[in-house]
Write a structure and sequence with these properties.
metal-binding (chains A, B); 13 helices; disordered C terminus; transferase (chains A, B); about 325 residues; TIM Barrel; HMGL (chains A, B); homodimer; PYR_CT (chains A, B)
């Protein structure tokens, strides 16, 4: 008998990972609406943007303003991506609850996307930790290991490398670590095997699983991770966030689909899925339907959905 | 550590479950091409149609001719759906290797779709078994329990009912039994729990898992079933076979996506996925793209795909 957790947390990453790969610049007012509605639908962790120079990602240039607004929403863990010490210093200034530092386990992907080797990212995390501790801020540092299952540039990524970087991130002072299938190379078996090994290294500091649906496996991979004890998942509304190397391919796990899967299994996410589907319809209008993915929105919730939750809460 | 099987079998059901729900009548010549190409791509079990009166399902009126052709393809297990004794007698005449008898665990669905109660289907299976034994034919009888996880008409379907019908089908002489999530009500937890209980009842006679992707969970559910020891899965090329109660919703698990998931996990299905993707593109032309689903076809196989298989065969 597999053990399933009573609760799980979804972290909405559409405002960062989703919008980052969409050329359309969503106006700040719309993003605030998104934040407000996502929070109202029950999401309690949201990655609101990326603290990088505006010339690199004009879509995310308003991140500091979003952090400020998000901090006003009760009970929300406000996450922000930071690529380097300078971004981390800005994150500390904004008062974000968590800063996510991406490390790419694929050396080629790391050079191409981060302009650093994985070892250089680890060294930067040590500097971030020193800056955080010196500042007295409570902002958590999460080391997010991307391309953990392979990558379009390098192909194979060895699990041993991933686990070595994980240990190095923890040694450098990361409070938490995560594993991400950045470009859709994971399968449930690989997920299970890597997360089981990662758990041995990081224990409760193994924080989050991040899957893309590039080849349809985001939910199967999420389930495989859940079985290893993961209870926190990244996802983006409408599955936005396609891979630049596979035009038209699906993006992140869709928040509404993953929320449905977990809730239907009797795992409490605190999310009102009807409200999330309404927000998805809204987002589809803002972004045009072509960039959205996911499946639940077509069929809607099953007839038994509420009943299943009620039955479960009694058993 | 979870045990994964070395091999798994996909049963292509697009020619029956897929075409059944599509108004377009695919000409017999196209179906023969599909059969030929599917066999060439490595599929070794195909449900070629349904032996029902042509006025009920004109799309499948050529089933007997397809059985005859399919029998000429080496090593192919030729499956055909039969709703009643009359269909079974025709199946015995055609020399099909396996006849699949649908039983709907939802009494309301059973009445609406089969015009019989589940108990009446069990009684019919006993008559089919007698007819098969009297004929001397080797055609296997598979009792396929549909709406095993819930249904749009009735809502909740109790696992106890499903398991009771499974035992009754075996007692009535079914050689094999299967569980089907006919309208997309399953989740991985429910799959795991029901298949584990079914295994206790049916042992090795628990034959096949049949999932629909109505709410995006076909692959996650397949993985959950795999973990309970299932090594045979129904799937349809391009995921055709939508639910009539959810217009536009996804259909069956897509053969190409499921084949990819299993192969990427190092599980041998004998399927050439590139060939399958070519056939899918062909089918998309025949049927128009709107009726096809699935995800792999957009992104294609990952760079590491062949390598992953080679690495796996060494480990």
């Amino acid at each position: 008998m597999t053990f399933y957790p009573a609760q799980a947390t979804l972290r909405e990453v559409g405002l960062r990972d989703g919008l980052q790969s969409i050329a359309t610049v969503l106006p700040t007012e719309r993003k605030l609406e998104w934040l407000r509605a996502a929070h109202a639908a029950g999401l309690r962790e949201i990655e609101v943007g990326s603290l990088v120079p505006a010339r690199l990602l004009p879509q995310l240039a308003d991140t500091a303003a979003l952090v400020a607004y998000a901090r006003s929403l009760p009970g929300l863990c406000v996450c922000v991506l930071v690529p380097n010490l300078k971004g981390a210093e800005r994150a500390l200034e904004t008062g974000a609850d968590l800063m996510l530092v991406p490390l790419s386990a694929s050396v080629e992907h790391s050079r191409a996307n981060l302009r650093k080797t994985p070892e250089e990212v680890v060294a930067e995390v040590a500097r971030m930790r020193a800056a955080r501790d010196a500042s007295g801020a409570k902002t958590l540092i999460e080391g997010g290991i991307g391309t953990a299952f392979g990558c379009t540039l390098q192909g194979h990524v060895a699990p041993e490398d991933v686990l070595r970087y994980m240990q190095a991130l923890l040694d450098a002072g990361a409070d938490r670590v995560s594993l991400a299938d950045t470009v859709g190379y994971a399968n449930p078996r690989a997920v299970r095997e890597l997360f089981e090994r990662a758990r041995v290294i990081a224990g409760e500091r193994l924080w989050c699983a991040h899957f893309h649906d590039t080849r349809g496996l985001a939910l199967a991979n999420s389930y495989a991770a859940l079985e290893t004890g993961v209870t926190r998942f990244d996802a983006s509304l409408g599955g936005i966030g396609g891979c630049p190397h596979a035009p038209g391919a699906s993006g992140n796990a869709a928040t509404e689909d993953l929320a449905f899967m977990l809730a239907d299994m009797g795992i409490d996410t605190g999310i009102d899925i009807d409200a999330l589907l309404e927000l998805r319809a809204q987002l589809a209008q803002w972004l045009s339907h072509e960039t959205l993915h996911g499946t639940l929105w077509r069929a809607g919730l099953p007839k038994t959905f509420k009943a299943a939750q009620a039955v479960d809460s009694l058993s």
